[in-house]
């Protein structure tokens, strides 16, 4: 059989004669986490107009398509919801801020009367990315927080503190694996335990942290109990 005379050849000729073509128009750009490349890349946000083609020429409109996100590196197209995933740099900043907020909340609940809790909190915050964080800075921030809210050390987790925790943790939780969510809770637990057993106020703060991280109450109780046991 001669080339192009079989069934596949006829299908190829038809596809060249009849079909649809999409003309893409860029409507925005930026940086995103590309699932195809596995890293931060530039992107273009595209909308398209589809046309019916005859003999390779566009003849009839077939409506709009998109929007889609095109990676500037791999050229793959993704749904617009891919932009909901933070970039690597944004994710790192969200994680750093979350740990900082949890540390302040635990200190605000238990007070800064002992250097052990401040030392544990400062070490945790430095490890999260605030490399210049000092015990004195945390102490001053906790005092300012108490003065601003009228908070009394050892009091339950009030609405203002709970809102701060949810604002820092709610956007982060969907992008963390279970182990990552547990790690943030356990870091707060170790700060609370640095100067002795949990106080009721510290436990309430940690329960709020667990809820914001979508950890079940039973799992929160298990993790807080596990943190008390030396490894």
Question: Which helices and strands occur, and which strands form pairs?
Answer:
Blueprint (H helix, E strand, L loop, with lengths): L6 H11 E17 L4 E16 L2 E15 L5 E3 L8 H23 L4 H14 L6 H15 L9 H11 L8 H16 L6 H13 L4 H12 L3
Antiparallel strand pairs: 1-2, 2-3, 3-4
Walkthrough of the structure:
- It contains 8 helices and 4 strands; from the N terminus they run H-E-E-E-E-H-H-H-H-H-H-H.
- Helix 6 (178-193) packs across helix 8 (217-228).
- Helix content is 50%, strand content 22%.
- The protein has helices at residues 7-17, 88-110, 115-128, 135-149, 159-169, 178-193, 200-212, 217-228; strands at 18-34, 39-54, 57-71, 77-79.
- A hairpin with a 4-residue loop joins strand 1 (18-34) and strand 2.
- The protein has 231 residues and is α+β, with helices and mostly antiparallel strands.
- It starts with 6 loop residues before the first helix and ends with a helix.
- Strands 1-2-3-4 form a 4-stranded antiparallel beta sheet.
- The chain is elongated and about 80 Å long.
């Amino acid at each position: 059989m001669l080339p192009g005379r079989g069934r596949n050849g006829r299908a190829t000729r038809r596809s060249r004669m009849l079909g649809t073509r999409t003309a893409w128009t860029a409507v925005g750009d930026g940086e995103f986490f590309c699932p195809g490349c596995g890293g931060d890349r530039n992107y273009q946000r595209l909308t398209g107009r589809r046309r019916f083609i005859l003999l390779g020429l566009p003849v009839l409109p077939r409506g709009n398509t998109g929007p889609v996100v095109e990676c500037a590196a791999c050229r793959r197209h993704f749904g617009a919801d891919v932009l909901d995933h933070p970039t690597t740099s944004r994710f790192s900043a969200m994680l750093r801020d979350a740990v900082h907020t949890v540390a302040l909340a635990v200190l605000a609940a238990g007070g800064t009367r002992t250097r052990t809790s401040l030392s544990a909190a400062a070490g945790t915050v430095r490890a999260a990315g605030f490399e210049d964080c000092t015990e004195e800075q945390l102490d001053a921030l906790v005092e300012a927080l108490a003065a601003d809210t009228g908070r009394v050390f050892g009091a339950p987790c009030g609405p203002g503190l709970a809102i701060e925790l949810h604002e820092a943790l709610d956007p982060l939780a969907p992008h963390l694996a279970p182990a990552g969510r547990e790690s943030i809770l356990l870091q707060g637990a170790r700060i609370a335990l640095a100067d002795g057993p949990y106080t009721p106020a510290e436990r309430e703060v940690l329960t709020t942290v667990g809820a914001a991280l979508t950890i079940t109450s039973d799992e929160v109780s298990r993790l807080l109990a596990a943190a008390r046991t030396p490894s």
